[in-house]
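Technical note accompanying the year-one report. For the benefit of new consortium partners, we illustrate the data format agreed upon in the data management plan: each record pairs a sequence with a structure-token string. No post-processing was applied to the example shown here.
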Amino acid sequence: MAAMDLVYSRNDALDVNPQGGQSHLSEGGSDWLWAVMACFTLAFLVYYALSFRPHHGEKIFHYLFSIALL
């Protein structure tokens, strides 16, 4: 359990970037946004790697989808 405490204690995003205005981001919200960004990055890398595999004439569709993920 001590290893997980180290992981959770490293999230100092709210300390580095203080909240301003009326929109507030909780620590759980910061973790959720980080997880979503990681999923999109993984999806982009997978589709980018797979874009080198299609037959001639199909690559443009894979490139367009990879650009849309950015």
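Partners are asked to follow this layout when depositing records. The CA atoms of residues 14 and 22 lie 15 Å apart.
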